Amino acid sequence: MTKFRRPGHGNVDVSKTLNFSFDGKSYQGVQGDTLASALLANGVHLMGRSFKYHRPRGVVGAGSEEPNALVAVDRGQGRITPNVRATSLELYDGLKANSQNRWPNLKTDIGAFNNTFSMFFPAGFYNKTFKWPASFWDKVYEPFIRNMAGLGPAPEHPDPDNYASTYGHCETLIVGAGPSGIAAALSAARNGGRVILCDENPELGGSLLSTPGVQIEGKFALDWLAKSLEKLRKTENVRVMSRTTAIGYFHDNFVALAERLTDHIPGVEIGPAREKLHRIRAGKVILAQGAIERPLVFNGNDRPGVMLASSAQTYLGKYGVAVGNEVAVFTSHDSAYEAAFNLSDSNIRIPAIVDIREDIRTDLKEQAEQRGIDLFLGSAVSKTKGKHRIKSIEVFYPNTGSKQMIGCDALIMSGGWTPSLHLWSHSKGGIKWDADLAAYIPDQANENCVSVGACNGDFGVAAALNAGTKAGGGRKKFNTNEFDFGTGISLDTLPNYIDTSKQKAFVDFQNDVTEKDIKLAVREGFKSIEHVKRYTTNGMATDQGKTSNLNALQIAAKAVDQPVEKVGLTTFRPPYTPTTFGAVAGYRNDQLFEVTRKTPIDPWAEAQKVVFEPVGIWRRAWYFPKKGEDMHQAVARECKATRESLGIFDASTLGKIEVVGPDAAKFMNLMYTNPWNALKTGSCRYGLMLREDGYIYDDGVVGRLAEDRFHVTTTTGGAPRVYRHMEDYLQTEFTELDVWLTSTTEQWAVIALNGPNARKLIEPFVEGIDLSRENFPHMAFREGKICGVPTRLFRVSFSGELGFEINIPAHYGRAVWEMLFEAGQQYDITPYGTETMHVLRAEKGFIIVGQDTDGTVTPFDAGMPWAVSKKKKDFVGKRSLARPDLVAEGRKQLVGLLTEDPNVVLEEGAQIVADPDQPIPMDMIGHVTSSYWSEALGRSIAMALVKDGVNLTDTDVYIPMPGQTHTARITAPVFYDPKGERLNVV
Amino acid sequence: MLFDQGIDIPEALSGDALNIALEPEKARFNVRVKSKDVAAFKKASGFKFPVKIGATAKTGTQLISKFGPDEWVISDDAKSREKIAKKLSKLAGQFVMSATDISHRNIAFNVSGRLANEAVNIGCPLDLSLKSFPVGKATRTIFENAPIQLYRSGEDTFQIECWRSFAPYMVDFWTAFSRDIA
After folding, report:
1. Relative to the CA of A180, which of A378, A438, A918, B110 has its CA 20 to 30 Å away?
2. For residues A667 and A726, what is the distance between their CA atoms, to the nearest angstrom?
3. Is B11-23+105-179 in CATH node 3.40.220.10?
4. How high is the ipTM of this complex?
5. Whole-structure pTM value
6. E-state strands within A470-561
7. Residue B1 — very low, low, confident or very high, per pLDDT cuts 50/70/90?
8. B81 in helix, strand or coil?
9. Which chain A residues touch B105 with a CB distance below 8 Å?
């Protein structure tokens, strides 16, 4: 049995010994311990170093509020978790934990020189010091700060663990399974709705576990607890979740619960989820989060061995661990007396209770006297001594100025209690100042939510049980024999004879913010608590100020001479406690992070060792390299083969919308710039779509299937927004039209065949369509069969060659592709990808929306006046096209560019200037939008948007690049077969 | 032989607690009819168009779901495709309506077993209690990043349809889920 374990106390199994190591040294704990309780049982208080001054620190709390005892847990490669609170870390056999923020070790830490020179590191030190000279930032300041910053070790390997996530629903969600939460669950369960009761701890019971002596309805707390939990677990509509933290509370009672599934299991393999995120939509939320005890801000309050009174009570009551042999008490609140008496009754000597108040309850005085405890009323601790553990305190009596040293090996403190408002505030619930508690408590709810128990200011077991029962819909009143919770006072500054500037009175332990830092911030002009927080970093550490916020607020309020409630409170934001990225991601890791849409022909391409490129969330075949080919060689070969014989291309990703109804043509006339009335059934036409502002939004070929039916195609990336754009107009502007839209993008697989042999290839496979030149001309559209399956066959070309786009029902896509590819061998059929498609279209000067346009290009800028109907009365964007700025001279226009050196392929996005000798900053007159090597022309080609470009045809412009300026001549943007003869070459 | 949905269901998803199976080839039509014409349309067509959004009507192999104020989807055996197409085309002469063949747009999964609810809820935020989502209900919804159609054919049986290219994402999700149900 370790030295500080108290047999007969606590809810741990002392028969099960667990071996663990801390900073490489071996220790023993028992089943049910946390790392903190196990270390305390071994007499170890020193568990960490502070962030800024590297001061030695001991454990302060006993739960998730702990600011000091942060450790890194090593579970193997990629499985190191930094900044774990030792107070929440369940002990298991073989646990390996290390302290942080120290070098070479916890007892001797070089970084502690910051402490020695702490007078040079006031609040705002970094902001003030690392400002000048600016050139020092990259080389000196940033590396220095980076080196000093951070607490635990950042992971160096990817996290190999798996995580899970799910959605859930319940009528009542109860957060916190202390007395109020359990009572709420018991009464809510009777109403029949689904109840979820969750608690962040492995063991449910909250404060009852720390005060096993309390009797509820004549039963000891643990017996009442066991019976209640058994009842809840047996009730079908109740789900009890331990190790589950409600990390955030979002709109409409949507609460995120992070459940830890395996961290407490020794040697767990990678496989089943480590954590699971439950996204719960609750009808009603009952918050029973409890309260956190407030430290006292006095000189030397951060020495290891100084901790919260309630924590000492928890270590004894829950874990059977004495926090010391000689435990002094410093308080401004009655509740610390209960802790003192509990400890005293377990044979822990209490050398002194120092109370700031002159007068206290008679029963407290009497009970202290009975136990032989010395009371120091109207006094304060003015100093503590001890290097890595407290050895003594100095008690100061301000009325006479007398001082007295008292020996101890721990000091427990209480500055009152802070109700936990975190989730309440996430839900945007209002708060109000309670002067008696000297704390904020919930006011008006913003959701269907109620706060019960200590987090609502209802202190005491009976009050919590009654409030919980009421919130769950019951009326039962409970009897207990508990210690009267009592009252306290709250002071901004404690009496001391030592000058404030010489004191080390910490407010925020984790970020090393002292009382004088907060006063300094106010002196320097930061009056808002939000500014004080950011300047001093109070409350900005991993504990988010759970123990420090209210103390900081009171000190700041006093310094600005305002009542606390006028100074406000900083905002609570999710997560409630530090949460792993894994838990937030859940299943959405690797390929589940985002959908990758694949076409029916994708598996065939993959088998050909194609190189893919992402286009929106689609992945498309980019190019098909043969052995030893780079991209340039592969694309040159694919281009040549297509122009000379036959290329095959997967165009399945093209967006498709079927526009159907008697008013279909009317609707098309409104949505596209082109005229549609005259388009005959069995024909297709290029369509150009504008936004209301007159700029090009999308384009595509549209086939007319019948008087009342159009097959509209869109760009790959534009499909969802075009559908939405159309539906938007249909539902809000053109509601009188009888027309409906159906997305058919995925109904059809599309195989594009381009090249002089295209017709020859498909002829034997096609039924019911006359493919002859006369009867199936360019821009014709027919329905029939190919390879025995229905097809919508377009004669269109995005390459300038004879071309067909074969639409077949998607699930037949791969089979038809394979049949055509097989038969195409006689023509050396060549599969090509998006890169070749881009080159072939650029040789013809066909634009790609989003590449040659950027949302500020009109059809006239793009050189496409032919696509805009002059006769139509209206279409979306028509009025904008007459805007003065859109008809003014000097707009950027789409032109072709031919470099002086035919081997130079310009960089897409490169800026264009008129005068290469102009000093910087030069006037940029445009930029390159598309640029490729053209195998067909044996030289480079480019398209560009250039100011007044059309008027500049045949003049030279310049493209300055690092080390070299290229010269290029402006041309028309059609480089290959300008007369379009190749469409009908065969 | 030509028919290929391009998806394989891993063995881990063919258990008793959770069984996910691909539905065979189907006929599917998206039909839009104006509210005022629905009664006459039903009479003329014999199609059992449900009245409430989210409701379905099942007649033999044919399932008709109402997804929007004027939108129904008819799904049936693949072999009824031409018959339904002909019937709809005839009706189009009598009514102001739209009917579009979307037979190959979707892939359908049959999700059944004790863990079926959970297999849906890992990605779908809807409340699947029988009270909120009774047997026979169908709706458009999402499964994380994938838009889906969800139909409850039994207490522990769902049919999920998604656009073809989203199907591998769905299967990958369930495969990840299967790690946790072993």
Report:
1. A438
2. 9
3. no
4. 0.97
5. 0.93
6. 506-508, 513-514
7. low
8. helix
9. 743-747, 810
